[in-house]
Design the sequence.
C-alpha cells in the first residue's frame, strides 16, 4: 500500500472516530466547552468530520474527485480548529494534532488534484 492510500485511510478512520466522538464522548463535550463552542457547533463539527471521513473512504475506492473535495474540507476544518486552539492560547503540544491533520489533508488535496489533472 502506498503512502497516499495509507494517509487517506488514516485520515478517514481518524475523522470517523472524532466525528462520532463529537456526538457521544463526554470528554469531547468538555473540550468544546473549553473551546468556547456550543452544542450546535460541536454537532456541526461532528457532521462535517463524518462527511469528510465518508467522502475520503468512498472517494478512495470510487472517485478521486470525492477525495479532493473531502480532503480540502477537512483541511479547512482543521485550520479553523487550529485557529480556535490559538485563540484560547493552547500550547503548541495541544495544538499540534489540529496542525498535523491540516497538513495531512492538505497533502492529500494536492495529490488528488494531481491525480485528477494528469
Sequence:
Amino acid at each position: 500500500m502506498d503512502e497516499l492510500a495509507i494517509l487517506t485511510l488514516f485520515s478517514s478512520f481518524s475523522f470517523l472516530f472524532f466525528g462520532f466522538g463529537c456526538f457521544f464522548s463526554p470528554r469531547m463535550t468538555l473540550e468544546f466547552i473549553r473551546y468556547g463552542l456550543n452544542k450546535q457547533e460541536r454537532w456541526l463539527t461532528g457532521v462535517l468530520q463524518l462527511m469528510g471521513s465518508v467522502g475520503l473512504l468512498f472517494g478512495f475506492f470510487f472517485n478521486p474527485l470525492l477525495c479532493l473535495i473531502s480532503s480540502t474540507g477537512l483541511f479547512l476544518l482543521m485550520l479553523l480548529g487550529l485557529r480556535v486552539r490559538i485563540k484560547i492560547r493552547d500550547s503548541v503540544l495541544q495544538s499540534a494534532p489540529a496542525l498535523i491533520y491540516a497538513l495531512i489533508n492538505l497533502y492529500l488535496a494536492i495529490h488528488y488534484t494531481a491525480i485528477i489533472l494528469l
Notes: Residues 88 and 112 are 33 Å apart (CA to CA). The mean pLDDT is 97. The chain has one domain: 3-117. The two ends are 21 Å apart (CA to CA).
